[in-house]
Each structure stands twice: as C-alpha cells, then as structure tokens.
Amino acid sequence: MKEQKPDLPLSLKVVSVLAKLMSVLDLPPTRLNEDSLCTAAMKDTGLSDFGDPYFREGLQELLRSCQQDADLHPIGRMVARDMITNFLIQRLKLVETRKQEPRIFSQPLVPPLIVTGMARSGTTFIHNLLAGDPDNRAIPQWKLMRPFPEQDANPNQPDPRIARMESGLKFRQPMLPGLDSKHALRADSPEECIIPLGLTFNTLLFPTLFPVRGYIEWYLGNADSSPKYQEYRWILQVFQSEAQAQRLTMKAPAHMPRQRDWVVWRGD
Known about the structure:
Blueprint: H1 10-24, H2 34-45, H3 55-70, H4 74-100, H5 102-106, E1 113-115, H6 123-131, E2 136-137, H7 141-145, H8 160-172, H9 205-209, H10 213-221, H11 226-242, E3 247-251, H12 263-266
Parallel strand pairs: 1-3, 2-3
C-alpha cells in the first residue's frame, strides 16, 4: 500500500512554492555549495578560522550525496542549507573559543556517562532516567544543536537558541506525522550527542534526516574518526565548564562502531 503524503498547512505550501522558485533561480536559500555555505557562516560570525581542515572531506561527501543521491525537494534543500550553515557557524565558534578561553580545554574531562547500545533498544529511556538524577546533566536539544551562544544575546532574556530550535521543530512537524510515537523531539529535552558532532561533518545525524546513501558509505567505510573524537572531547569540555558540579550524561547508539577511537577523547 502506497504511503499517503501528509496534508501540509497552507503556510508550508506557500513556502514550498517559494522554495521551488528559489531553487530554479539558484538563489542562496536553496544553494548547496561549499563556498556559499562557508561564506554564509563567516558572514554570520565575523570569523574565518574553521580549524583542522579534515572536516571538509565529510562536508564535501555530504554535499555530493545531497546532490547525487537525495534528490531533495526545494524545502529539503532549504533545511539542509540551514543545518549545514549552522554547524559551520558552531565550528567557527569552537575554534574561536579554544583561542579565547584555553582554560576550558586545559581542565581534565570528568568521564561522562555515555549510553550506547543497539538502536530502538531503550537507550532513550535509560538516558532520560539517568538525566533525572540531579548529580547528572543531560544536554537539551537546543544546546546540542547550537553549543555556543548567539552573538549579542541578552543575558536577562530567554536564550534565543531555544526559540530557534522550537521554530525549526514546529516547521518540520507537519512533514513528519507520527514521529512522536517513534522518537519525541522537544527543544528542551535531552537528545543524542550525534547532534553537536554535526560540526565535524562526520556523524550519523545527516543520514537520519536526508537520504544520503553515498555519505553513509563514506561514513562507514572511509571516514577517519580520530579528529572527530578529539573535537567531541572539546565539545564535552565546553559543556562541562558550564556546570562543573554535575556529571555529563550523553547518549548515542552511533558510538558503537567507533569504540576503537574513544581513546582520543579519554586522553589515553
């Protein structure tokens, strides 16, 4: 039986028409081009140092697979561009934070609790259970997606990253009916640490959102995970610096095939 397409609200139908027009005209909101994406991230932050260029291999594989395998709808191209640009922004901010606040990265990393296991085996339940302990700290999705603060954010106002995450989830919700019954997504709920690994462009996050077969083949067969886990360690140190009295509690079944690389973030 052929699966029925979701009945989209009028607002999303309008966005779809506009996205198709922008795609035909090759306007920036639907453009999946490495130079264009990097330029957008640099313009947003005023920064230009992306750090170790190893990440470009994964970025190029992702963009190639989006073009050749995914056949993305123009809205899909908009979502992909927004997500990739965000992770390039976070990457720029990670490199800058290492320059400006070296003390964060000189502190020993308290071994976090990391839930792994087969997908759909109850890892989310265990993660949420551990997160209920006040001595532990699970990271909400809005912070995983954007680990570094927005520029010029008002400390007396709600963090704008929360609203951006809520807006993104609300935008995608009509296109993903029934998702809550499989894996509920909320801006303020703990989520998998494959999300901040987006800034390494070596993560299973992208294949969960886009049918990028070529990228998956690269990820499973050719990707070097050593620099990725070095940067994972740095991300954990940033989270740790925000609440040192609590033990980080992370979760991602995707770590399982990469256990040989964990010595990097453990510091062995």
